[in-house]
Design a protein that fits this description.
- The chain is an alpha/beta fold and 142 residues long.
- The protein is 53% helix and 13% strand.
- The chain has six helices and four strands; from the N terminus they run E-H-H-H-E-H-E-H-E-H.
- Strands 1-2-3-4 form a four-stranded parallel sheet.
- Helix 2 (27-35) crosses helix 3 and helix 4 (85-99) runs parallel beside helix 5.
- It is globular, with a radius of gyration of 16 Å.
């Protein structure tokens, strides 16, 4: 953070999936959660939320130093929910509660179904990072 000026980090499911499939860094944790009976989906989210929680803890001093203006970590809702408003809202709330850090942002895609989910999530007091805004028309919906 000091050497390279990192002020925040975003993540996405593709990066996590590649890291889990190609490397060995997650193997021990994956064995532990699956041995406890977790499904593949549950194991994935356990690994993701653990990593994101650790990252928020690392950047928390910067978040505090900068008065909450930077130092955020983003975690994306499941891409399977891109066209499911209620499912997106539910997962955003679950991730927010599960990770429970003020410098967390929940990344939600700006699909037609995502736009009302973004509004509802913000209304619930949850930090949101809007992603996949591919047109000015979609941006103007705000």
């Amino acid at each position: 953070m000091e050497e390279h000026g990192i002020r925040g980090v975003t993540s996405n499911p593709t990066i996590f999936e590649k890291a889990m499939a190609a490397g060995t860094d997650y193997d021990a944790q994956l064995r532990e959660v699956t041995a406890a009976g977790a499904s593949a989906r549950e194991a994935y989210w356990d690994l993701v939320t653990t990593d994101i929680a650790h990252a928020t803890d690392i950047l928390r001093p910067k978040y505090d130093e900068w008065g909450g203006q930077d130092g955020f970590i983003s975690v994306e809702v499941s891409p399977d929910l891109a066209h499911d408003t209620d499912g997106t809202i539910a997962q955003a709330k679950e991730l927010w509660t599960r990770i429970d850090r003020p410098n967390l942002m929940i990344k939600i895609p700006a699909t037609a179904e995502g736009v009302p989910a973004i509004a509802a999530t913000l209304d619930a007091g949850i930090n949101v990072n809007v992603t996949l805004i591919f047109s000015l028309a979609r941006y103007a919906e705000w």
